[in-house]
Design goal:
By secondary structure, this protein is α/β, with parallel strands linked by helices. 42% of the residues lie in helices and 16% in strands. The chain is globular and about 55 Å long. The two termini are 38 Å apart. The model has no long low-confidence stretch (mean pLDDT 94). The structure holds NADPH dihydro-nicotinamide-adenine-dinucleotide phosphate. Pfam families: Epimerase.
Length: 315
């Protein structure tokens, strides 16, 4: 019997994994344990040790992190760095101490070098400084790869990482300030429709992004923990041709929420990186049969979830 501990199990990605392993991806020889910060503060090594003592995981999916959108990152780089460094160091040290067979941690495409060639691939994580706006989060994430290589080299451990592009879906952080672009947009459009006001979008709308639906990412995580045997990171993203502009994303949200008012772009606000196009070639070679949910359908499902869960959603 495998016991798979999911840190960050109450968040956007964690709750999507929970949904798929309890339904379509269920297996009888796997027991899944999902924990959030109320169950254990992973910044605290003793609490983390107690968690490992009680769960006794054979496998770990490590998602827990301080996560936020561009504007939240800009204001708190030091905090993002220190919190995430502490959490990651504790989790990986305890995986080793408790003889965990496999740990899959989570990087992000936004931690890649700012000045780079496109498309970005898995070999480029350390090839130059990240964008200034989120250097704290980025360097802390990159250190996961350093830890994984260290545990492999010194202890023969199979601890690895995946690199998702922007994720969205049910249970996201829909906060207008701290949320990522899509959930913040969904919330703003909801309010604009309700209050009959214009929808104000930060920035020019021109930057390009790859977005993955949390349910698709969840199915990929499950396959990685079951089948991926390498220490080197693996990008989990939609393809290069599925990249959309923020303007395209706004259109999809506006359509899904049936907002008919004005959309205004506030170009005095920062755009962030213009693009960070990642290649999913390695992923498609590994899992050639994998099918992504179409973007508009995934937006529709996320909007529906937000509207139905407005009172209790994180916002
Ligand atoms: P969420 O913000 O939705 O969830 C974060 C999770 O981490 C929550 O379960 C939270 O617990 C937990 N957590 C935070 N701090 C602590 C702590 N000190 N101790 C224990 N648990 C803690 O994040 P996502 O689901 O969006 O992100 C999951 C992973 O995916 C992260 O590593 C993130 O960096 C990565 N990622 C996310 C992307 C995105 O677009 N969202 C893109 C690429 C990568 P609780 O809610 O109970 O407080």
């Amino acid at each position: 019997m495998k016991t798979i501990l999911v840190t960050g199990g109450t968040g956007l990605v964690g709750s999507a994994i929970r949904q798929v392993v309890e339904t379509t991806e269920k297996k009888d020889d796997e027991q899944w344990v999902f924990i959030g910060s109320k169950d254990c503060d992973l910044e605290n090594v003793e609490e983390t040790r107690k968690l490992f003592e009680s769960v006794k995981p054979t496998h770990v999916i490590h998602l827990a992190a301080m996560v936020g959108g561009l504007f939240h990152n800009l204001a708190h780089n030091l905090k993002f760095f220190r919190k995430n460094m502490a959490i990651n160091d504790n989790v990986l040290a305890l995986c080793h101490e408790f003889d965990v067979v496999k740990c899959v941690s989570c990087l992000s495409t936004c931690i890649f070098p700012d000045k780079t060639t496109y498309p970005i691939d898995e070999t480029m994580v350390h090839l130059g400084p990240p964008h200034d706006s989120n250097f704290g989060y980025s360097y802390a994430k990159r250190m996961i790869d350093v830890l994984n290589k260290g545990y492999a080299q010194e202890h023969g451990r199979k601890y690895t990482s995946v690199i998702p592009c922007n994720v969205f879906g049910p249970h996201d952080n829909y906060n207008l300030q701290a949320g990522h672009v899509l959930p913040a947009l969904i919330h703003k459009a909801f309010v604009a429709k309700r209050d009959n006001t214009s929808l104000e979008v930060f920035g020019s709308g021109k930057p390009l992004r790859q977005f993955i639906y949390s349910m698709d990412l969840a199915r990929l995580f499950v396959r990685v923990v079951r089948e991926y045997e390498d220490v080197e990171p693996l990008i989990l993203s939609v393809g290069e041709s599925d990249e959309v502009s923020i303007r395209d994303a706004v259109s999809a949200v506006v359509k899904a929420i049936e907002f008919t008012g004005n959309v205004e772009y506030d170009t005095s606000k920062a755009d962030g990186q213009f693009k960070k196009t990642a290649s999913n070639e390695k992923l498609l070679k590994l899992f050639p049969d994998f099918k992504f949910t179409p973007f508009e359908q995934a937006i529709q499902e996320s909007v529906q979830w937000f509207v139905e869960n407005y009172e209790t959603a994180r916002k």
